[in-house]
Automatic annotation (TrEMBL), chain A:
All copies of domain AB hydrolase-1, residue ranges: 34-250
Domain of life where this protein originates: Bacteria
InterPro entries, per the entry: AB_hydrolase_1 (IPR000073), AB_hydrolase_fold (IPR029058), AB_hydrolase_sf (IPR050266)
Protein name: Alpha/beta hydrolase
Coiled coil (residue ranges): none
Automatic annotation (TrEMBL), chain B:
Domain Lipoyl-binding stretches: 1-78
Pfam families listed in its UniProt record: Biotin_lipoyl
Protein name per its UniProtKB record: Biotin attachment protein
Keyword Transcription: no
Keyword 4Fe-4S attributed: no
Named cofactor requirement(s): (R)-lipoate
Keyword terms of this UniProt record: Acyltransferase, Transferase
Originating organism: Arthrobacter hankyongi
């Protein structure tokens, strides 16, 4: 007999930085945790703590679990590319949920299963995770989502040329993603580029596996990366789509309307 | 009543300004400490600033789209004199020194 911790889904513990935030004192909410998945080149701190999500959710009576993706925030940056592949990260998430002793969903028991909120790359990972783990995931909120992972189109050679000798990057999405990646000192740039390589090998194909639980999709009206959110919404079975006026991919995350909609949706 | 002003705080290395996205409080509103005050965006990320102070919001600076420099005024609160560390009413002309000292303590808060 071993602890859950001893039973490793992938055989190797990635030592991801996981933080648990308990519901605020005096609040009541469903007991199942809300797992927060941050975006590329962000971190649990930037995406969820600094943007006010952890406070909003814990004040709404929810227990919150954040995790830094490999190469991000306080998580290690392994050298091998496999550590960054979406399938491997989904296995790590399953491990995390197992370590937290989460029980499969049972009708009428609010202490079973999990809810997930993902932003950008985190939304893609959530889509795939929810589709393959329906017995664990009750509801999901996907922010800044798209039918296509913009990281799969990232011009890696152009980024490497730019980093080597400053040659300008032609593709605006590549330039913007690299700008974001270099802005956050806690991020390991080499690890982030390795993650892009891994994502190019496993691009997002949302129709491959479709989550059947209720989904709330949220995107800024000016979010260039999430213009295809309606296509994704049409794929899902029970899906709502919320547009945030005047918001972009970078600044939709702090929106109070986004937080309130997510909290209400997950309480439903 | 006393007034306490807070500037836009330092938001991390190298960042000198932020753009107001949305105010989450209005002038005249009573807020608790740590209540979300305002969303701002820097070149690095968007952040929600919690209130450093409990009190009535007297004045807010900047509307959505406006840029505020780190250190420039962001918000002014009105707080009861006892909250501000002043017990009772101290007429200015009678105790100017004491009042100055207490204000200095407040600034460090």
């Amino acid at each position: 007999m071993g602890a859950h911790r001893d039973r490793l889904v992938e055989g190797v513990d990635p030592h991801l930085n996981v933080q648990v935030h308990e519901a605020a004192e005096g609040t009541t909410g469903p007991h199942r945790p809300v797992i927060l998945l941050h975006g590329f080149a962000s971190s649990a701190k930037l995406n969820w703590e600094d943007a006010g999500w952890v406070t909003a959710l814990t004040q709404a009576g929810r227990r919150v679990v954040t995790v830094d993706l490999p190469g991000h925030g306080g998580s290690p940056s392994p050298e091998e590319m496999d550590a960054y592949s979406p399938s491997r990260i989904r296995a790590d998430l399953l491990q995390l949920i197992q370590n937290a002793h989460v029980r499969p969903l049972k009708e009428g028991d609010d202490a079973t299963g999990v809810d997930i909120i993902g932003y950008s790359l985190g939304a893609r990972l959530a889509w795939e995770f929810g589709a393959t783990q329906p017995e664990l995931v009750r509801r999901m909120v996907l922010g800044g989502p798209a039918v296509h992972d913009p990281l799969a189109d990232f011009d890696l050679p152009a980024a490497q040329r730019y980093l080597a000798d400053g040659t300008p990057i032609e593709d605006p999405t590549t330039a913007e993603l690299l700008r974001m990646a270099t802005l956050v000192p806690s991020n390991d740039l080499y690890a982030l580029l390795t993650m892009i390589e891994a994502i190019k090998i496993e691009p997002f194909v949302p129709s491959d596996a479709i989550p059947q639980m209720p989904l709330l999709l949220v995107a800024g009206e000016k979010d260039e990366l999430a213009q295809s959110a309606p296509e994704l919404a049409r794929l899902g079975g029970k899906t709502e789509l919320l547009w945030l006026p005047a918001r972009t991919h970078a600044n939709a995350i702090t929106s109070r309307a986004f937080k309130n909609a997510a909290i209400d949706f997950l309480a439903g | 009543m006393a007034e306490i002003s807070f500037p836009l705080p330092d938001l991390g290395e190298g960042l000198i300004e932020a753009t107001v996205l949305e105010w989450l409080v209005a002038e005249g509103e009573q807020v608790e400490r740590n209540h979300p005050l305002v969303e701002v965006e820097t070149t690095k990320s968007a952040v929600e600033l919690p209130s450093p102070q409990a009190g009535k919001v007297l004045r807010i600076f900047g509307t959505p789209g406006d840029t505020i420099k780190v250190g420039d005024p962001l918000i002014v609160f009105e707080v009861p004199d006892d909250t501000a560390g002043i017990v009772g009413t101290v007429p200015k002309e009678e105790a100017p020194k004491r009042r100055v000292r207490l204000n200095a303590v407040l600034d460090e808060d």
